[in-house]
Design brief:
The chain is α+β, with helices and mostly antiparallel strands and 131 residues long. The chain has helices at residues 2-14, 49-62, 76-81, 109-124; strands spanning 21-24, 67-70, 89-92, 95-99. It has four helices and four strands; from the N terminus they run αβαβαββα. Helix 1 packs parallel to helix 4 (109-124).
Length: 131
């Protein structure tokens, strides 16, 4: 949840210039699977699209104010972008401009923040603002 809070701060800061999207993929630590003790939610493994929709609604309650869509049950977005189970991307005009590492260890909101600050500076010719 700390990562979601950090992501929320990025969304708040850059939402005028950047469109943010969360793609909800398969649950990394389902309550009926590989459980983690630090999860604030009890979400079972998705067995249907309806299960995934229900789980996404739980996520949306704590998610930043940005669009939230669902991956297919075949997890095609997760496979195409190598999310397994969380990853940050910046895509501009169909080109991947930034690709963060795979979660959980490679998922670094601070790295994305640095990229956005540099992009903002190049785009607007100003010094980056700090969160």
């Amino acid at each position: 949840m700390a990562r979601m809070s950090a992501f929320q701060r990025l969304v708040t800061k850059y939402q005028r210039d950047v469109d943010f999207l969360i793609i909800y993929i398969e649950e990394a630590h389902p309550s009926d699977g590989w459980i983690t003790t630090d999860s604030p939610y009890i979400i079972p493994q998705h067995r249907s699209l309806e299960d995934r929709v229900s789980a996404a609604r739980v996520l949306q309650q704590g998610a930043p104010g940005c669009a939230l869509v669902l991956d297919t049950m075949a997890n095609s977005s997760s496979s195409a972008y190598g999310a397994y189970f969380e990853r940050l991307y910046v895509i501009q005009s169909g080109t991947i401009m930034y690709q963060g590492g795979r979660g959980p260890d490679g998922y670094q909101v601070s790295e994305l923040r640095t990229w956005l600050e540099r992009y903002d500076e190049q785009l607007h010719g100003i010094r980056p603002r700090r969160l």
